[in-house]
Amino acid sequence: MSDRSFSAGQEALQRQRRRRIQKAANRASHEAQIAAMLDESLADITSLAPEEETQPDEARTALETALPPCEESVSKEEAAQTSQTEEKTRKRRSWDIDDDDFETPEDKALAKHSTGSWLLTALNGFFIGLAVIVPGISGATISIIFKLYDRIILALSSIFKRFKRAVLWLLPLIIGAIVGVILGFFGVKYALDYIPFAIVCLFGGLMIGAFPSVHAEIKGAKKSPLRIILLCLGIIIPIVISVLSTNIIESGTGDPLAQISWWEYICMFLAGIVVAATQIIPGLSASSFLMMIGYFTALIDSISLTYWKSNPAVLLVYVCLALGFLVGLFVISKIMNALFRKARQTTFFPIVGLSIGSIICMFYNPEIFATYTAWAETGMSSASVSMGLDLGLGAALLVVGLAISLALVIFESRRAKRAQSLKETSAR
User: How far is 368 from 337, CA to CA, in rounded Å?
Assistant: First the structure.
């Protein structure tokens, strides 16, 4: 049985050799025929009269074009055509690319969402939207928990370079942020009017549970004097903002949007840039900043048809804020992306400090300070909720927020380890 198999294998090999030899002979014969025809054609051309003379190179080119190409010439033409197509593809603008072949790690980072990543990004956007309404909460810190912070910065900083890919990646984030703002305005603000301390404790628990994820970025890093100074500055800045905002809100009176001067529109544009910074730099709060400059309550109260009819100039304030916000998102994300490329760990030292300061500020800002004052004067958080009930709910919701945040951190950590393990296994 084995002898027959061996013989059959030998015969197959001999047939393959004969086919190769025959093909080579055919090719050699074809090339010889072409050479002979070229020589005859050149001889005829040289015998022509001067007025009928044609350039030999042009004649050879015309004859080669007319003759059937051999296998080798076809392959060269196909290779040249393929090379030209690839070159055109590389030169196309990023928003014209519809294929799934990524040329850079940045393109891969902004790959098309799966169902799970789409929902995760939308949830991150939801918290960013809440951060605009709820004092003290930082949407960027939540982004670090979800391991999406670097991608958000990349998408915002390269939105003109990779427009289509960046916009599609940011779409669930934008949708989630819109839902977060709406729910924060109609839901969370309503709850803050009744149980303010309990709601702040819920978000405080989320921020405290998120801190290990932020601190992991500098774990094991060298503690140089510069880095320690940056860490301390990060802690101090939000606390100073919160103290100043509390004092300004207490001393401020009237509606700052009732009469608006031309220079205030410029200030609103600059304020929009700072609000964008609070959404990109972890630890900073948009609502705390707006409280510090005395516009948070005024802007919230201005969102009504009645107010718009009585003071239409406020619509231009919204436009200036929005324009400043968009400019700030792009410019500050570019700066942060450059800092991460050059000195990632050093950049994260002030971010860790800002996260610590933000947690402290959640329990000391104008909104919650008014609750403390009401406790001291009346023993009530609101007209229908006592201080004891608010404190009890606050303690429970603090634990709930802490548990949710830690669960997300653990889940993301395990998911990252599994992804890394799969990558190492496939590399082997």
Answer: 34
pLDDT tens for 194-252 read: 888 888 888 888 778 878 877 888 888 888 999 999 999 989 988 887 787 777 654 44
Q: Which residues pair with 386 in a beta bridge?
A: 380
pLDDT tens for 336-372 read: 888 888 888 898 899 888 888 878 888 887 778 888 9
Give the C-alpha separation, 413 to 421, whole Å. 12
C-beta neighbour count of 323 within 10 angstroms:
14
Q: Are 405 and 282 in contact (CB under 8 A)?
A: no
HSE-up (13 A, CA, CB side) for residue 93: 8
Please state, in angstroms and rounded to a whole number, the distance separating the CA atoms of residues 241 and 243: 6
Contact 359, 211 (CB under 8 A): yes
Residue 379 domain-assigned (yes or no): yes
How much is the pTM?
Answer: 0.61
As a whole number of Å, the end-to-end CA separation of the chain is 39
Question: What is the C-alpha to C-alpha distance for residues 415 and 417, in angstroms, rounded to an integer?
Answer: 5
How far is it, in rounded angstroms, from Cα 185 to Cα 27? 79
Give the total number of structural domains in the chain. 1
d(CA 237, CA 242): 9
SS3 category, 229: helix
Residue with tokens 């093909």: 23
- Cα distance between residue 368 and residue 196, in whole Å: 7
b/e string for 209-243 if b means 16 or more Cβ within 10 A?
A: bbbebbeebbeeeeeeeebeebbeebbebbeebbe
Residue 385 lies in a domain: yes
Domain range for residue 338? 106-427
- Is residue 80 domain-resident? no
**Matching residue, tokens 């309550």:** 297
In a domain, 55, yes or no: no
d(C-alpha 197, C-alpha 215), whole Å: 26
Of 291, 219, 282, 279, nearest in space to 248 by CA: 291
Q: Nearest-CA neighbor of 189 among 240, 135, 229?
A: 135
* Residues paired with 380 in a beta bridge: 386
Helix or strand or coil: residue 311? coil
The token pair at 106 is 């940045």
Q: Looking at residue 87, what DSSP letter applies?
A: H
Give me the phi and psi of 277, to 5 degrees please.
Answer: -60, -35
